[in-house]
Design goal:
The protein is of the alpha/beta class. The chain has 2 domains: 228 residues, Rossmann fold; 141 residues, Rossmann fold. It is 28% helix and 18% strand. The chain has 14 helices and 17 strands. The strands form 5 sheets. It has a 5-stranded mixed β-sheet with strand order 13-10-15-16-17. Strand 2 and strand 3 form a beta hairpin. Helix 8 runs antiparallel to helix 9. The radius of gyration is 22 Å and the shape is globular.
């Protein structure tokens, strides 16, 4: 039972039942084939899809308060809502034909499902990486919705999407009161709280349910899963595991991935050794520079400092030169696929393609195992300024 409260998700009474005004009896030309397909959720712990006769419940768990973050009812478009429904937030006719995703991390899933044309707006539109979405934004076909943390409600209301897809975090509903009151359904996505890389990728099934593409989503996921597990097998019995440092110091605090975070799992799956692997946090651990230096000064590999070159790293803090990974040039950032305006594919397709991310990390940790692999998301830092390639 996920989090020990999955049954609670079916019983808890949320404050009100807000339904978007839709004529369910109207003639519908949308394709609802595949609505009855039932995929199994195997890796993700933060959501589930419950199938009933004639409708589905898509439940996202409030992992911070051991409750339910959202509980939406999906019905085939053009049908009458069933009676005696369980407690829910919205009744959403599916497949949806328009969506406003408020985070770039949702775009990779929508792209893999071939539903980019349903996207009607974007946050930080100038930083889109996907070429098709870039072009739509430049042509004025995508509304600018503000930023992920400060969305423009007036624009969202003007776009009037079938759903808003938004990253959830603790107490997020308190921040979204105006959107919730508008009647536009919100599909909260908290893939970032998953502890496994394949758990994050499995959220494609969550996204697919809103497009009546649960079966297609399952098929795409299975292919990604097969590739991920096949590469993991390369390092399953490896003994020489390089020690790994992650992130960087920011305003006096070094936020290190928690021992139950997906980054810690990625390091483990790639055959690395992580100092904080037994720590229980799913998010980040706030540490002082001095503690990190004491524990990881001799780490073999450093991944994820947000700089473009080794000299830039020292401009941030001269003490970085004390780390072994800096001295040996084994420092890698996630900016190998970045546009001139700052769009980064790591934050778009990276979530949906853990198989590619894993191959990157294995080739960094154990280059002899994947000698022909070209880094996809990661890039080794050098002394030279990084010149972004035109995308």
């Amino acid at each position: 039972m996920k989090f020990g409260f999955q049954s609670l998700a079916l019983l808890v009474c949320l404050a009100s039942c807000n339904t978007k005004k839709t004529d369910h009896m109207a003639e519908s030309s949308k394709n609802t084939s595949g609505f009855e397909f039932e995929s199994q959720i195997e890796y993700a712990d933060c959501f589930t899809i419950v199938h009933h006769g004639g409708y589905k419940q898509v439940i996202v768990f409030d992992v911070w308060n051991k409750d339910t973050l959202s509980n939406n009812i999906l019905i085939p478009d053009g049908t009458v809502s069933p009676t005696d429904l369980p407690y829910h937030d919205y009744i959403i006719p599916v497949p949806v034909s328009s969506v406003a995703p408020l985070s770039g991390t949702h775009l990779g899933f929508i792209d893999l499902l071939d539903e980019l044309d349903t996207i009607k707006g974007a946050t930080n539109g100038e930083r889109l990486y996907n070429k098709k979405l870039q072009k739509k934004y430049q042509n004025g076909e995508l509304a600018e919705l503000g930023t992920a943390m400060a969305t423009n409600l007036e624009v969202i209301l003007d776009v009037n999407p079938d759903i808003v897809m938004k990253t959830g975090f603790e107490d997020i509903r308190n921040n979204d009161e105006r959107i919730l009151d508008s009647g536009i359904p919100i599909a909260y996505n908290i893939e970032w709280m998953e502890t496994k890389m394949l758990g994050r990728a499995e959220w494609i099934k969550f996204v697919g349910a809103f497009f009546c593409k649960e079966q297609e989503a399952d098929s795409v996921f299975r292919a990604i899963e097969d590739r991920y597990l096949a590469v993991t097998n390369l390092v399953r019995n490896i003994e020489n595991r390089p020690t790994v440092l992650s992130g960087s110091n920011s305003k006096g605090t070094w936020f290190m991935p928690g021992g139950r975070s997906y980054i810690a799992q990625l390091i483990e799956d790639a055959g690395g050794a992580y100092h904080y692997k037994n720590e229980s946090s799913q998010g980040s651990i706030p540490l002082s520079f001095e503690i990190v230096l004491e524990n990881l000064v001799d780490a073999d590999i450093w991944i994820g400092p947000r700089v473009s070159s080794l000299p830039e790293l020292l401009l941030m803090d001269e003490r970085y030169k004390l780390f072994k990974a800096y001295k040996t040039g084994q420092v890698y950032n996630i900016d190998n696929r970045v546009t001139e305006t700052g769009g980064n594919d790591y934050w778009e397709s990276g979530v949906a393609r853990p198989d590619l991310m894993l191959k990157d990390i294995i080739s960094i940790f154990h280059p002899d195992l994947l000698p022909d692999h070209q880094l996809h998301f990661y890039r080794r830092l050098t002394n030279e300024p990084y010149i972004k390639s035109p995308h």
